[in-house]
């Protein structure tokens, strides 16, 4: 049975395809609760108002995969974790350009292990049992492992198990072998993922929480391929205008947001409502200069302290200066 929200999206998609003059943007997103305003903007016809058709590309693997899609020009825009994009630009990726903050509040990462891993009771135990599950090299789950290690008093974890997605990460810490047809992965001791996305699996007993860590920066940003910034500037401006309207709609219709998240994503209504009390979207995306201190300086300093960035300050600064948007969009 289609929900009312899903039927509304389907209706807008049909009407969009009949208008051949519409501009098309390919937008990659992670299918979590943070994506809700993007789809509210579609539901309410905000993209269509700007003669814009959005082809959404679902990316459950995380920010590392988002970056790969942008690098290969398979998508025009991606919405993902601040630290992943800042780190990749600072390391020299000139194929992407960070445009602005999407979510102003920090992200709460839960540190999880298998439900029967009795040898792991807290994050301090990871100094002894330290193979960390990550979605991809360069993803937020990878970068935050350096931040966690730094907080625990050592430079970095030395072993990683690349697991591609959240399901594989859960199986990895539970020492389950990949099933036929599944993406291969190695057994790991712990992994980090957004708290509310993880909570359902704490409640079911599939995994257990042994710690948590907040990002010291606003959590989500909008990033474009360098090519799209050059060739689709007006379309990107229109997309961002639509997203601002979607965020406004979200803020004014929390009950509807809870219903959508509980019906279409992997959350209970109770968890979805609790999350809405913690999240703060940027309701003026592209309308003010990017907060350089919070997004760039603070993130870069933590990444340098954690050992993720090792080039000189001049080299890192030049890369960020060229590939982080500073003015209104």
Would you give an account of this structure?
The protein is α/β, with parallel strands linked by helices. The protein folds into two domains: 191 residues, Periplasmic binding protein-like II (D-Maltodextrin-Binding Protein, domain 2, 3-Layer(aba) Sandwich); 109 residues, Periplasmic binding protein-like II (D-Maltodextrin-Binding Protein, domain 2), CATH 3.40.190. 44% of the residues lie in helices and 19% in strands. A five-stranded mixed sheet has the order 2-1-3-10-4. A five-stranded mixed sheet has the order 7-6-8-5-9. Helix 2 packs across helix 10, helix 5 packs across helix 13 and helix 11 crosses helix 12. The longest helix has 20 residues. Pfam families: NMT1_2, PBP2_Ca3427_like. Belongs to the bacterial solute-binding protein SsuA/TauA family. It comes from Candida orthopsilosis (strain 90-125). InterPro entries: Ca3427-like_PBP2 (IPR054364).
Low-pLDDT ranges: 1-19
**Mean pLDDT over all positions:** 91
Number of separate domains:
2
CATH topology category name of the largest domain: D-Maltodextrin-Binding Protein, domain 2
The CATH architecture category of the largest domain equals 3-Layer(aba) Sandwich
Main sheet strand line-up: 2-1-3-10-4
What's the helix count? 14
C-alpha Rg (nearest Å): 20 Å
Largest sheet: 5 strands, mixed
Distance between the termini: 40 Å
Strand content: 15-25%
- Helix content percent band: 40-55%
CATH level-1 class of the largest domain:
Alpha Beta
- Following the backbone from N to C, one meets helices and strands in this order, namely HEHHEHEHEEEHEHEHEEHHHHHH
| Strand segment count | 10
State the CATH superfamily name of the largest domain: Periplasmic binding protein-like II
Alpha-beta classification: alpha/beta
Morphology call: globular
Organism: Candida orthopsilosis (strain 90-125) (Yeast)
InterPro entries: Ca3427-like_PBP2
Family: Belongs to the bacterial solute-binding protein SsuA/TauA family.
Subcellular location: Periplasm
């Amino acid at each position: 049975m289609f929900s009312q929200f899903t039927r509304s999206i389907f209706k807008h998609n049909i009407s969009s395809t009949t208008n051949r003059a519409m501009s098309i943007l390919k937008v990659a997103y992670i299918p979590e609760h943070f994506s809700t305003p993007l789809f509210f903007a579609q539901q309410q016809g905000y993209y269509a108002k700007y003669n814009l058709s959005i082809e959404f590309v679902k990316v459950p693997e995380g920010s590392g995969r988002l970056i790969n899609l942008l690098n290969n020009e398979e998508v025009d825009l991606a919405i993902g974790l601040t630290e992943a994009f800042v780190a990749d630009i600072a390391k020299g990726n000139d194929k992407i350009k960070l445009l602005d903050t999407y979510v102003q509040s920090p992200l709460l990462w839960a540190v999880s292990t298998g439900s029967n891993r009795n040898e792991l009771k807290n994050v301090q135990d990871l100094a002894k049992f330290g193979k960390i599950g990550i979605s991809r090299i360069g993803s937020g789950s990878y970068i935050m492992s350096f931040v966690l290690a730094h907080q625990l008093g050592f430079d970095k974890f030395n072993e990683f198990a690349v697991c591609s997605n959240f399901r594989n990460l859960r199986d990895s810490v539970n020492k389950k072998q990949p099933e036929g047809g599944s993406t291969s992965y190695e057994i790991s001791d712990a992994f980090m993922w957004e708290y509310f996305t993880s909570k359902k699996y704490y409640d079911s007993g599939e995994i257990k929480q042994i710690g948590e860590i907040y990002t010291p920066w606003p959590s989500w940003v909008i990033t474009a391929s360098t090519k799209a910034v050059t060739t689709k500037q007006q379309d990107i401006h229109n997309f961002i205008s639509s997203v601002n309207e979607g965020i406004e709609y979200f803020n004014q219709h929390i009950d509807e947001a809870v219903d959508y998240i509980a019906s279409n994503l992997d959350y209970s209504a109770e968890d979805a409502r609790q999350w809405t009390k913690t999240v703060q979207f940027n309701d003026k995306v592209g309308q003010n200069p990017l907060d350089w201190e919070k997004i760039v300086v603070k993130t870069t300093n933590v990444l340098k302290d954690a050992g993720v960035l090792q080039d000189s300050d001049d080299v890192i600064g030049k890369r960020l200066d060229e590939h982080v948007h500073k003015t209104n969009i």
